[in-house]
Amino acid sequence: MHSPLEIAKNFVEIGYHKVKLSAVKMMILGFLAGCFIGFAGIAATTAAATVDNASLGKLLGALVFPAGMAMVLVAGSELFTGNNLIIISVLQKRVTWGQMLKNWFFVFIGNFIGASFVALLVVWGHTPDLFDGALATKVVSAAVVRVNQTFSEAFIRGILCNILVCIAVWAAFAAKKVEGKLLMSFWPVMTFVLCGFEHSIADIYFCVAGLLTKGIYGISADVLTFGSFIVKNLIPVTLGNIVGGAFVVGLGYWFVYLKHTPGYAMSLEAEQEEIDIAEEY
Fold it and tell me: Which end of the chain is more exposed for a tag (fewer CB within 10 A), N or C?
């Protein structure tokens, strides 16, 4: 098991390599992560579709949804919410603010396309027909819940969610084996889903799927529009995710484990000088 200090040091280099990807690779890997989260979304909704007890249904969905994070971590992909931890590399002066923002932008676009792609195929493939159409109602209901919040509620739930998501990523990097990564990432993700916190990429899937299902199946939901999805969900949740992931988890762990380790900072500077000299030749 890696210690928290080792995890922090590793993240500095992980962030550096993430921002060095080309924009095309960022988008492709982001697309895959969006797909993985979308698959987890439809699986979680399906698991709870016919459960009358609301809390039991929520628990079943929460137990299924971590499959998405498992695929993101093990299969290789780029997830915007987890990449909020690149701020550790920025604070350690290994990565610039511009490089981090470029990564966030292209990965987010890839995530959006991937999650929407899965939503489109799920609905066009008539998966909501399951359980005599009960799943279709649940798909729309899941979207309505996400747009039926105030800006501040969505923002706060976004903060809480990405604290847990980034802790899931952080804890996964503590493990040296795949089974350890899966086990350590499971609990924080299950917790955020169970508590109803908001994940921007998951919400892209849920809201796009809800909009498409509403139209194709003729389910009434006046509050659910593309505008309400963007303004009342995606914008505040994304901003909340950044605060929770980058400024609570990322900044917090950087301050505790890296800010007061001058020897490590000096070794990074020396390593960068060697890289710069090598590149000149």
Answer: C
